[in-house]
Amino acid sequence: MSRLANRSILVVGASSGIGLAAAQAFAREGARVALAARRRERLEDAVKEIGERTLAVVCDACDIGACRRAVAKTAEAFDGISDLVYTAGIAKVTPLAEASADDFREIFDVNVLGPSNVTQAALPHLARARGRALYVSSIITDDHPPRRGMGMYSTTKAALNRLVECWQSEEPAVSFTRVSVGDTLATEFASDWDLKEIMPYVEEWNARGYLAGRYMTPEDVALHLVGLLEGPEGVPVSYITPRLPDPES
Ligand SMILES: NC(=O)c1ccc[n+]([C@@H]2O[C@H](COP(=O)([O-])OP(=O)(O)OC[C@H]3O[C@@H](n4cnc5c(N)ncnc54)[C@H](OP(=O)(O)O)[C@@H]3O)[C@@H](O)[C@H]2O)c1
Question: Which atom, in ligand 1's list, is nearest to the CA of 183?
Fold first, then answer.
């Protein structure tokens, strides 16, 4: 059965990882899907593989003009946009004392400004369709004390959480959901991290119990996103995390 028939979904961050798996899952469930990100070749390869009800849309979410063009192209091809799924996100492992303003700005732009840009551009379509907008956040915002070395990332994801609430408060015609995701492999999220440099932090996160020691796949997360698009509207927050290992086993 097609769980998402008649839906036209814009997925931002769809060139790899969770966003790509989400685009594949939505298409399998009968939706028309626009795959947006910056890497054109990746998007075009994915569209070839997934099939004809998909569209590749090159878009840097930090650029409002690019977001408007991506939305216009998608809406024209699909005769509207019913739902938005924002999965783009980046991080760097750097203590705040050493973080550069450029790095902080770049992470803020992708994790906070980007989702707001895309939402603003897509809003008339989403409101007309009384659609859903999902934003992939992280369980890192629940770490107490915060995970050392990830200050820029967890600050911007906490800002994203609030951003989603603010959009909901101002735009009741759309159903906004923050999706807090736990450890997921394999994606490209940490592909440019220097393993030797980050290992002391990873050991500390592990000792504090922040890492589950097991991982979900992007496909697991994608199935959860299908459920959120298909299920009841008005869900403000949803979590998907791996189960902690049983200490007895
Ligand atoms: N992996 C995990 O363990 C984990 C855990 C919790 C939360 N998350 C969250 O899950 C989301 C997806 O991450 P992932 O693990 O799937 O990582 P990923 O494979 O690195 O995917 C990130 C995606 O974001 C896109 N992107 C980056 N900057 C962009 C920009 N300026 N404009 C448009 N697209 C942009 C990338 O495409 P281009 O480079 O082609 O633009 C890519 O498609 C992120 O929000 C991350 O914070 C991940």
Answer: 3
Q: What's the confidence (pLDDT) of residue 1? A: 65
| Structural domain boundaries, residue 92 | 8-239
Residue 13 and residue 2 in contact, taking contact as beta carbons nearer than 8 Å: no
Whole-model pTM: value is: 0.98
Domain count along the chain: 1
Q: Within a 13 Å sphere around the CA of 125, how many CA atoms are in the beta-carbon half?
A: 25
| pLDDT tens digits for range 26-48 | 999 999 999 999 999 999 999 99
Q: Give kind and range of the element (H or E) at residue 133.
A: strand 132-138
State how far the Cα of 34 lies from the Cα of 76, in Å rounded to an integer: 11
CA of 90 to the centre of ligand 1 (A): 6
Among protein residues, the one with the nearest Cα to ligand 1's atom 47 is 89
Q: Is residue 185 part of a domain?
A: yes
Q: For residue 99, tell me if it sits in a domain.
A: yes
Whether 244 maps to a domain, the answer reads no
Only one residue has tokens 């995970």, namely 147
The pLDDT, as a whole number, for residue 246 is 75
* Residue pair 74/83 in contact by the 8 Å Cβ criterion: no
What's the gap in Å between 248 CA and the centre of ligand 1?
35
CA 16 to centroid of ligand 1, rounded, Å = 7
- Tell me if 227 is assigned to some domain: yes
CATH of the domain at 49: 3.40.50.720
Instruction: Give the residue-averaged pLDDT of 223-231.
Output: 97
